[in-house]
Amino acid sequence: MELDGYLRATLRRRTLVISLTLLGGIIAFVLSYLTPVRYDVAVASTIQRVNGQNTEQFQYDEYYALQSVDLVAQTIVSWFATPSFVVAVYEEAGFDPAVQSVNELSRRFEARKYSGQNVVINFTQESRDSAEKLAQGIIALVGERVPQLVQDANDTGAFAIDFDAPVISERKANQLLDTILGLLVGLFVALFIAAAQEALSRDTQSV
Q1: Fewest CB within a 10 Å sphere: which of 4, 24, 37, 73?
Q2: Helix 175-206 vs helix 3-12: crossing angle, to nearest 10
Q3: Cβ within 8 Å of residue 57, ≥6 positions away
Q4: What is the pLDDT of residues 161-185, one digit of tens each?
Q5: Which of 116, 102, 117 has its CA nearest to residue 164?
C-alpha cells in the first residue's frame, strides 16, 4: 500500500485509531497508578583487620592483611547467596522469611564487593518499616559473624566491620512516562489494525 493510500485508510478509520490509542493510555495510567511504591536499600560496610602482631618478623604483614581482608569480603558476599544465612537475616530482623523456594531466597539480596575492604548489600522492600528492620538485621548479623571468622586463643577477633547508615530511597512508578508509552503502544496497534482492515477490504473488492 502506498503512503498516500495508507493515510487515507487511517483517516477513514480515525475513530478506531483514536479509541485504541486512548485505551492504551488509560490502561497504562491505571496500571502505573496501581503499581505499589517500593523501597530500595543499600547497606555499605568497611572491613579492616584488627589486633595484628606488630613485630619485625611480620614485615609483609600489611600485604597479607589486605589479602585476608579481601577474603573476608568475598565471604560476606557468599553469605548472602546462602539460603540459611538469608533466613537468619530475616529472623534477626523479626520477620518471617516466607520461603517460596531455596533459589528465590538466594536472590533476595545483592551483595557486591567494590574493593577488598568495601562490600555493599542491596535489596528492595515494600515498606519503609521492613526496609529499616532488615537493614538493621544485616548490620547486627554480619557485625556479629565477621569477628568470629578468625579468633585467637583469647577469642579476640582478627577482623572488624563498620557500617555506614543505610540509604533508603522510595521508588514510584512514573505515571506520565508510562501513560505516554501506553498511548504510543495503543497508536501502533491501532495503525496495524487499520492497515490490516484496509488490506482485507481491498482483497474482498478485487474478488
Answers
A1: 4
A2: 110
A3: none
A4: 999 999 999 999 999 999 999 999 9
A5: 117
50-67 confidence digits (pLDDT tens): 876 655 555 556 667 777
Provide the terminal-to-terminal Cα distance of the chain, rounded to the nearest Å. 18
Using CA atoms, how far residue 18 sits from 97, 101, 143, 198, 201, in Å, is 48, 46, 59, 17, 20
DSSP secondary structure string for all residues of 95-125: -----S-HHHHTTS-EEEESSSSEEEEEEEE
Q: Cα separation of 81 and 34, whole Å?
A: 32
What is the DSSP pairing of strand 38-49 with strand 167-171? antiparallel
CA distances from residue 114 to 47, 63, 77, 135, 162 in whole angstroms, order as listed: 12, 19, 11, 19, 15
Phi, psi of 58 (to 5 degrees): -110, 50
